[in-house]
Specification:
It is built from 18 helices and no strands. The chain is an all-alpha fold.
Length: 462
């Protein structure tokens, strides 16, 4: 019974603390960097509508399942899955689901911290007015100089990892909880300020129309699959973060209600980011579908040609850093929790070991942008012939490990875990709400995740 298990790491003070922490984990570069550009590439409003449907049918059910597993196990994802497999009389190999989440979080953070370092660097560049009057070639040159200089990238990567480990080393209440109580509200305040600034850009209505007026002629089968995939990845599912945060959740807190609130807040951040970015793009005659460079190579042009651009450009990149920071602490927490539980380490020592290993792995990403930029280790496979080591890490985690992790979570919670246990943990009774969740996790979400997985891995193309 879950009431007999207590986490050795402590617990959140209340539901609000968990909501802020899980929202911080879900809200990251994907919401502010990735969502606007994939919406721009896939027709705007129609894509957003499909994305919202996918959040409801895929994201929320799997989030409920992952939080439920975490709270019932009350340990790191590895030990949680070992315990729950034994409880369900299932094969002990299910513990590898926990290992997959911990490893995925470790690998993601190793390159995520390098990208977050770009945002840190841009805070100071924007503050110094580097983008004032800059041309597209000028901004492109600034970006290239940063990414191709391994010493600069190493410095920013190191600073960001130190920021992350200082928070994690302080523990659940003194570290994670105190950080998210400041960072998540600050993130929303910054977004609202940027939206207010976008309202005065002269193209706010055009941005809203692009984002919220569906034109279904612009949506494609591939666009639907991208929306489906992003709805899954944006909630930090399948990487152990939500499971370990769920292990710190108080017993009487509703898993269903908190999961829905977190998904809604995460989606709200993505929409607010779009409302801030697209008016600036349109008012400066830029291209909304300019791809991954939208944030680091397109928006600085806009900030460099608008009144108050230095200030609001700085605020925007501070927002990016805050979003990355809240996600980073959740990505490393599963590994830290396991080291404390299994190796008898203190939080400080576990944080140092996990942080040092992640920092070291990040060197691979740094070199992939400079000295190893022409190194393509799997060039003998056509789909990977131009992939650097960084590209392969990104592909392995986002396109293989996370969807398989989410699929395994759905299968375990719906088909392996005893029905009475999931009814007890979700605390909805065995009524219509529970049956809807059970149907979605049993049938809808596994099929959707398999379809996304087959498509993004190139096994089946749509």
């Amino acid at each position: 019974m879950t009431q007999q298990r207590k986490s050795v790491h402590g617990s959140w003070s209340n539901r609000l603390a968990f909501v802020l922490a899980a929202t911080g984990s879900a809200v990251g570069l994907g919401n502010i960097w990735k969502f606007p550009y994939i919406a721009g590439e896939n027709g705007g409003g129609a894509f957003v509508l499909v994305y919202l449907v996918c959040i409801g049918l895929i994201g929320i059910p799997i989030m409920m399942a992952e939080v439920m597993l975490g709270r019932r196990g009350r340990q790191s994802p590895i030990n949680t899955m070992r315990t729950l497999a034994a409880e369900a009389n299932a094969h002990p190999a299910w513990r590898w689901l926990g290992w997959a989440g911990v490893i995925a979080g470790f690998l993601i953070l190793s390159y995520y911290s390098v990208i977050a370092g770009w945002a840190l660097a841009y805070v100071f560049r924007s503050m110094a007015g580097v983008f004032d009057g800059a041309t597209a070639d000028g901004v492109g040159s600034i970006f290239t100089q940063l990414t191709e200089d391994p010493e600069r990238l190493l410095a920013w990567h190191t600073i960001f990892m130190v920021m992350t480990m200082v928070v994690v080393a302080r523990g659940v209440k003194s570290g994670l909880e105190q950080a998210v109580r400041f960072l998540v509200p600050a993130l929303f305040v910054l977004l609202i300020m940027l939206d207010g600034y976008a309202m005065a850009s002269g193209a706010f209505q055009q941005g809203l129309d692009f984002l919220f007026t569906p034109d279904f002629s612009k949506i494609t089968a591939n666009g639907v699959l991208i929306a489906m995939g992003h709805s899954f990845f944006t909630l930090s599912l399948g990487m152990g973060a939500i499971m370990v945060y769920g292990s710190y959740l108080p017993d009487r807190t509703s898993v269903a209600r908190t999961s829905i609130i977190i998904a809604l807040l995460d989606t709200l951040v993505a929409l607010l980011a779009g409302m801030a970015i697209f008016p600036l793009v349109f008012s400066n005659g830029l291209e909304p579908g300019s791809g991954p460079g939208l944030i680091f190579q397109t928006l600085p042009i806009a900030f460099g040609h608008m009144t108050g651009g230095d200030l609001f450009g700085t605020l925007f990149f501070v927002l990016l850093v805050f979003a990355a920071w809240t996600s980073a602490i959740s990505l490393i927490e599963p590994a830290v929790a396991w080291l404390v539980e299994n190796k008898g380490m203190t939080r400080v020592h576990a944080s140092v070991y996990a942080g040092a290993a992640t920092w070291g792995m990040g060197l691979v990403t740094i070199l992939s942008f400079s000295h190893w930029s022409d190194f393509h280790p799997l060039s003998f496979i056509s789909i990977f012939e131009k992939y650097t080591v960084f590209d392969l890490l990104d592909y392995l985690t986002a396109n293989i490990m996370l969807p398989l992790g989410g699929l395994a979570i759905a299968i375990f919670s719906a088909w392996v875990m005893r029905r009475q246990d999931s009814v007890q943990e979700l605390d909805m009774g065995d009524g219509p709400a529970y049956r809807l969740w059970h149907f979605l996790v049993c049938y809808v979400t596994p099929v959707a995740v398999v379809v996304v997985f087959l498509n993004v891995t190139g096994i089946v193309e749509f």
